[in-house]
Design a protein that fits this description.
The protein has five helices and no strands. By secondary structure, it is mainly α. The two termini are 21 Å apart.
């Protein structure tokens, strides 16, 4: 989880610097470090990472990946506000 959080932080910095492609890869790495049950064991982190991943994917013209990520969020979200 700690490595996922570090990659999330780096991805946010890349987004802030308008480097959307690099942000995408940081978020992709972060998600890969989450445990298989992350939506149950680390829901908030999983949600945040997936939202950021969708944003970075969309901003770097990876529209299919953005759509798949948003579908994953819709499938796993606990409530409509998420």
């Amino acid at each position: 989880i700690a490595i996922a959080e570090l990659n999330m932080k780096a991805g946010k910095m890349a987004l802030d610097g308008c480097d959307h492609k690099m942000a995408y890869f940081y978020f992709l790495a972060a998600i890969s470090f989450l445990p298989d049950d992350s939506w149950e064991s680390s829901y908030d982190l999983s949600l945040r990472l997936n939202v950021l991943m969708a944003r970075a994917a969309n901003s770097s013209c990876r529209y299919d990946e953005a759509e798949l990520t948003l579908q994953r969020i819709c499938k796993r979200a606990r409530c409509l506000q998420d």
